[in-house]
Write a structure and sequence with these properties.
Strand content: under 5%
Number of helices: 5
Shape: globular
Order of helices and strands: HHHHH
Number of strands: 0
Helix content: over 70%
Structural class: mainly alpha
Length: 120
Amino acid sequence: MSLLTVYGLFITLGFLFAYLFRTKARGFSWQEYSILFFGPFLGLLYVVYTLGNLPLFIFAIGSIGLTLTEWIVGFIYHKVMGSHLWIYERYSLPGRYTSFLSVPIWGFGAVLLWLIFRTI
């Protein structure tokens, strides 16, 4: 089984567990947020174990770079169009164009994209 497939399965299982074990309460929960990233984190550990520390570097660069890109796109859209394209309400960065909560999502996504391009 390819590394991309294994990592994709870990991500899918993490999201599935977050869906299955969510509470009925509406709103943010640190417990649910942590469960959401349990699968992708295990997948990242497996990729690091297999390939060395480069995936951690990709994760860090993706987390910072793609979060910054999201903020810049939201800022430019807001200034050009006069309205927000999206608004983050919880733990948002100035302007509410992105959130600290989305940082790991961008990191896991960067590793996934890197594995896809590495496979092609």
